[in-house]
Fold:
Amino acid sequence: MVPSARLALAVVCAGLFVPLKAAEPAAFPIPTREEREALRKAHFRMTGVTEPLTESQQAIAAAQDDVDVRHYFLDLEFIPNSRTVTGSVTITGASLVASFQHLVLDFASNMNISAVKRGNTNLSFVRNGDLVDITLDQAFGPGQTFDVTVTYAGNPQASGFGSVSWRKKDFSPLGSAFSTLSEPEGARSWWPCKDRPDDKATVEMWWTVPSSWIATGNGVLLATVNKSGNRKQYQWRPTDPLTTYLVSAAATGYSTFSQTYTTLTGGTMPINHYVYPEDLANAQVSFTALPSMIQFYAQTFGEYPFVADKYGMSEFSWGGAMEHSTNTSYGYQLVNGQHNYDYVMAHELSHQWWGDAVSPQSWPNVWLNEGFATYSEALWAEHLNGPTGYQNYMNSFWSSSFAGSVYNPSDLFGSTVYDKGGWVQHMLRHVVGDTNFFNAMRDWYANNDNGAANTAQYQATQEIRYAGSLDWFFQEWVYGTGQPTYEYGWTTADLGGGSWRTYVRIRQTQAGAAFRMPVDLTVITGAGSQIQTVTNDQLDQDFNFLTTSPVSEVRFDERDWILKAGDTLIPLADADADGVPDRNDNCSAVANATQADFDGDLAGDACDPDDDNDALADVSDCAPFDPAQGAVGEVGSLSVDGAQLAWTPAARAETHDIQRGALSGLALGDYGSCLVSQTAATTYDDADLPAQGDGFFYLVRGHDAGCGGGGTLGTDSQGTPRPAACP
Structure:
């Protein structure tokens, strides 16, 4: 439905005047946000609001859970002079429990019930507000069916968006037409029913009107019957079940014309329109896109849901339009001989899939109707005008903020449901990918056709195709509130050899937690452009990537796949002008575009005093990038056990030299001679014995086979290096 007004209440009533527009030459003109809001909010026509049920009424209404309504037969007459609806409704139900005996219907308290019967048996009933509690004449077990006929008359009081109207146009006299718009809970204002979206039933509807009128309804016209008193009855029956808010009656002195839809299997289906005679020529122009629209949506989602019956539109007095199954009610202000309201036609048509074939299980799930239909408008724009047309159309219902959540919204028919709901679909498409997204949409339709479903089931359907959890996405965008605001900056560093590294920083500046989203970065180089997709899930996050050409620009979410409040390009500090932001630079004071860090200690080689982390300062290291080479350290320990020497290897030593001298010569400065040169062992057995009354001392030094050469033997007590006897 494209509403003509909104109010933050459980049920809303509204009407409006839509200003006519001059013809626009573009294919599928994009409405401005103001034009959309004009259709939704031009002025209120507040007529009645369904009051919340009292505690006792809730207890009565709970019995509706115990019955499955299978069929409704509505035999009603619409009398324009008295603005009366009179006739009967027969309800066929099946018990879902043992001993079912109370059928509870929703029906406006101002409507007069003259009889309630099962067959020829009168049934007792009690009215409590807008509830009718009917006591059946026997109890019914699970699966057992029954028929109850309610005969009534009265002057329906419009509720919701204006559930009934007796005017052809806003300024026409009362009694010039009759039409209904029962969403969300207005069916009860003019016929008794289980007025919930989750219980679909087949319906047959007989509308009796003045013989100068044509009465339209859902499905196929079975027959017309002339009746006494200049009256005519139109008997309609849809093939598929529908929910109560989609049952439609529209009647006045219509003119008709038809189009034809060629089905996916090559058959044909009629598209029958009922318009005011004075608008016939305009309608024949304004409606020309419909056959192509049906074909496109059928190819995208699956065959038109009611292909066994028809599609068409009936002109009515309301300011917007309403997606009654097979028979959209279309506001007279929209029939102007132009195409500036093609988006309304696309919206209502797509509802035949989203809302009519697959209905919401409860009203908190209404975004599955309206968000999907709003998004379907953008798909039609994409079909006609390509990716740019699609992007421009999506941006036509962008806003920097939306009130409340998409699921269980405070305003059932507000922009959060329509526009943010459409953006949810748009973003989800990018998250899961085109193939997965559209396959899941076809699954959603195929698996839930003629049924009612909820948001959790839709999430599960997308997850099957995506092959992963989407809970994070639905929690953020469907159940949660708000949207991200971004800052981003970038630099690029020349690595040499025809390679560049680009650094990108993304910040989210909105209040609260970070949104997790894939972000497309369009990278512009002399060779063209490429998309780098990064997953941003933190409030402040850095990314980098390589290119083979220098980068001249980075564009943030250029195709607008994210419902963001805004994005701002910011500079990134780079003190050494090497293309590496200071926060990411391992040596921000010295230009080092390659960010070389030999030892991986996060101190870049340009700043690291010990690049190989071998405890030798580079200035003293003959191999500053080889921890295995360089000046050899001292042996850590040396022990003598009998005739065996053992020592701890010196740092960077592949071999060791052993020097031996007599204790008696040590005092004279004699440090002995080379006993073993460059042994690979770390032990040595000395078979020699010192002279009588003397002893041996040993000195061991490491030896680097590379540039380090031989190590030191330490220093004497005066700090003088001990001389080495081994080469």
Notes: Confidence is low (pLDDT under 50) at residues 5-26, 41-46. The CA atoms of residues 261 and 292 lie 8 Å apart. The two ends are 97 Å apart (CA to CA).
